[in-house]
Amino acid sequence: MKKLIVLLTVLFLANACKKENETNDAFKAEAQTFLDEYTKTYTKLYNDASLAEWDANTKIVAGDTMNAYNVQKAGEAYAKFTGSTEVIDKTRQFLEGKDKLDTVQVRQLNTILYAAANNPEIASDLVKERIAAENAQNEALFGYDFQVAGKSVTTGDIDKVLRESNNEAERLANWEASKGVGKNLKDGLENLRKLRNETVGALGYDDYFSYQVSSYGMTRQEMLDEMNKMVKEVWPLYRELHTWARYELAKKYNAKVPDYLPAHWLPNRWGQDWSALVNVEGLDIDAALKDKDPEWIVKEGENFYKSIGFDALPVSFYEKSSMYPLPADADYKKNNHASAWHMDLENDLRCLMSVEPTADYYETIHHELGHIYYYQAYTNPNVPPLLREGANRGYHEAIGSLLGFAAMQKPFLAGKGLVDADAKIDETQNLLKEALSNIVFLPFSAGVMTEFENALYAENLPKEQYNKKWWELAKKYQGMVPPSKRGEEFCDAASKTHINNDAAQYYDYAVSYILLFQFHDHIAKNILKQDPHATNYFGSKDVGTFIRGILETGANNDWRELLKESVGSEMSAKPMLEYFEPLMKYLKEQNKDKKYTLPKTL
């Protein structure tokens, strides 16, 4: 009798388990059907919106409203679908039973819900208004006529003056001209802040900054703490660089050494990159490139990726991209900010640039093609279209920056014939130049930009304090001040493209610089067996295999686990600090007996 009871119990449990499995399989199949149908519509609308945005960025005609109309319509259709109440309800329903689904399905559902929060149907009027406001802000930003002494100039012209001119008056005129665009963007920025906050608030987010941070699986405070940690870690070296720069620039302009750096003295509109302050003899890349055709520079970038095992770019890339400056007599403008585009989440890959034969563009082409090859790598059957993006947003920038960084090291350049392999270069000066780019960037990205946008969105910074806050942060984190008083008639923060159209995400770049040095350190020491200061990735299929391993899973992973698997550690500034450690001794010697004006710690 006991044996019979046991047998019946086993049969009952087996039957119950079978029924549960059948129920789970049915639920999983239902979720997959939803994902397939959503993806089909999503990819079409994504492509439509991308095409409209492309046209709006590549042909800006004063008074022409057609591009704005097309962007508005495509954006509204995309928003209506991704934010529909039906989509949100179904997604939440499936996520309630996520234990019955596989990991890839859950990742896609979370991606759908994240996208919905930016366009919820329950706030459809707000979404429509926000899309129109964003389009208007872009038109005002990219259609602005920069003028110096009554003559129209490009941002490239301004940048050239700030990089090269020794005439302080000329520098001041160009710096002030570069900020003029902000005046016309201040009201729009205030309106966008309101609309962005209220839109994501409809699905429960505290503010737009918190919403954007959530894609990392972090809270707003966790991201702020992480950024603050980054700045504190590099601060001792930044403080040395700041002291060195104050004395060097005062000497250059025959002026009294200032306590804080006048913004127009620096070779970048926002003081985020000071590398142009140093010329490394034997490493004059601008001179080597001056007679090159811009197309040659683009092809060189592609050849690099092919050499490490990646495929050639599709013919359509060259046919559809907008790579070069417009003719001087063009009757329209275009966005000159370099960017990479994955138009359809498949094989329509494009770059928007204005390539010229300079060292900056040589590095930039390697950076932007890093994005393109990231797109190409994760466009594969193992990564559903909804997960065809970086492991996190910082990963995308890290890969671009990594390859741009590698392409500027002497052994690489010598291998390409752009510098003399036997040329003796001052390694300390070269390291200084790299620090003036990489270290200097972190207080700006992790400090100024991150704190400003946190204040803007999460702390509801009043419009009457935008400029005051911007310069308070610039002084605190960069030790930089404006050439003269900048009142609230200005909005100098809005002269930065990202403040307007890539909002509340600038910490992505700070993350990317940390990841860059982690990846580079691993490649140099463990793959190439080379000094991290002097590497040549070109032709190394092993390097390509390592990079592809990071790229090809897209967002179909946990970004923290991917980092541990690839480099063996969590996100850390240690490799960056180790890289620049030899520079500290030199700078301390240079700065001996000089006055430090930045505090020892933040």
Which secondary structure elements does this structure contain, and how are they paired or packed?
Blueprint: H1 2-58, H2 66-82, H3 85-96, H4 103-117, H5 124-142, E1 147-148, E2 151-152, H6 155-164, H7 168-183, H8 186-201, H9 208-213, H10 220-252, E3 261-262, H11 285-289, H12 294-307, H13 315-320, E4 339-342, E5 349-352, H14 359-378, H15 393-406, H16 410-415, H17 427-458, H18 466-478, E6 480-481, H19 497-501, H20 507-528, H21 541-551, H22 559-567, H23 574-590
Parallel strand pairs: 3-6
Antiparallel strand pairs: 1-2, 4-5
Question: Care to give the gist of this entry?
Answer:
It is built from 23 helices and 6 strands. It is mainly alpha-helical and 602 residues long. One of its GO terms (molecular function) is peptidyl-dipeptidase activity.
Describe the 3D structure.
Among the domains are: 18-143 and 185-217, no CATH class; 277-438 and 507-590, no CATH class. The termini are far apart. It contains 23 helices and six strands. Strand 4 (339-342) and strand 5 (349-352) form a beta hairpin. It is mainly alpha-helical. Helix 14 (359-378) packs across helix 15, helix 17 crosses helix 23 (574-590) and helix 20 crosses helix 23 (574-590).
